[in-house]
Structures are given as structure tokens and as C-alpha cells.
Specification:
Number of helices: 1
Number of strands: 10
Shape: elongated
Oligomer: single chain
């Protein structure tokens, strides 16, 4: 009876292999894009909304490289000075393997509708499925020690969720 079961199993596996069902390979390149929503926490809470495009190249299951460009807007409110703060971000992040960290850099601009501050923001994070959690520091000019400057998030923690609208496999 055991020999019959083994024979049927080998026959079944051979049939699946002949149909190509066992030889499933990862696509070499996957491009995903869509909008994201998120929240940023620092000195102030800020809501985020934007778009992101990701390029993923995989050699094996755990050996993949992902690069992404993103652009977004965030809005926070300084309740101490009763002042709204609007921010724009344009950035890039890179992830070396499936279980690795993301490393990125953003160009950013913040305004309180009277003045503005511009700068860069290095980030580090982790991406699991469509959730991306990042932390970073905004290096803004002019600094908030200058007369007439406004306060905004410098060090922050951000959580985003990407809604994939378009997926291309090559």
C-alpha cells in the first residue's frame, strides 16, 4: 500500500511539473505605484498624504533590492502659537534585501504661511508589506534660534500605508 501511495505521489508531482506549476519563478522586476496616507509624530502630530513609486528587482526569494521615490504633503498645527504648519517632502529610499532596513533622504520645505524653512532629512525605517515605519531628523534652514522662525518637527517617527493602484511585472 505504501508503494502504491508513493507511486501515485510521484506521478502527481511529475504531472504538476510537466504543466509548469512547480517551476514558479519570482518575477525579475516588479514596479508598484499608488497613493499613501500616514501620520507623523514628533513635537507635533502631522497627517501625511502623497504618492510613491517602487522598483523591486529580485534574484531569489530573500535576495531583492527595492528603490522608491515619493512625494507628499503634511499638515500640522502648533497649538501653542495657534499656527498651522504645511510641509512638502520629496524623497528616495533604498532597501537591500527582503528583511532589511530602508535608508532614505528627503528634501523638505515647511511653512507657516508667513515664512518658510527648507532642508534635508535622512531617514531609516522598516517596511513590512505595504506599511512603512520611518524615523529621521529634519535639518532645516533657517534654524529655529533665529529671530522670527517657527517651530516644526525636527526628530520624528512616521507610519505610512501604501495603497497600490498599479503593479507591473516584467
Amino acid at each position: 500500500m505504501k508503494i502504491l501511495k508513493l507511486f501515485l505521489f510521484i506521478l502527481f508531482a511529475q504531472q504538476l511539473s510537466a504543466q509548469g506549476l512547480l517551476d514558479r519563478k519570482e518575477p525579475k522586476k516588479v514596479v508598484k505605484s499608488g497613493p499613501y496616507i500616514g501620520i507623523q509624530s514628533g513635537r507635533f502630530y502631522a497627517g501625511e498624504i502623497g504618492i510613491e513609486r517602487q522598483w523591486r528587482r529580485s534574484e531569489k526569494l530573500l535576495a531583492s533590492t527595492t528603490n522608491a521615490l515619493h512625494m507628499g504633503v503634511n499638515y500640522s498645527y502648533d497649538f501653542y502659537h495657534f499656527n498651522p504648519i504645511l510641509g512638502y517632502d520629496l524623497g528616495f529610499w533604498h532597501k537591500e534585501n527582503t528583511l532589511g532596513l530602508t535608508y532614505g533622504m528627503n528634501l523638505c520645505m515647511r511653512t507657516n504661511f508667513d515664512q518658510y524653512r527648507v532642508g534635508i532629512c535622512p531617514t531609516i525605517g522598516i517596511k513590512i508589506l505595504q506599511f512603512h515605519i520611518q524615523t529621521g531628523y529634519h535639518f532645516l534652514y533657517p534654524s529655529n534660534r533665529n529671530y522670527g522662525s517657527f517651530d516644526t518637527n525636527t526628530i520624528f517617527l512616521s507610519a505610512r500605508y501604501l495603497i497600490v493602484n498599479d503593479r507591473e511585472k516584467k
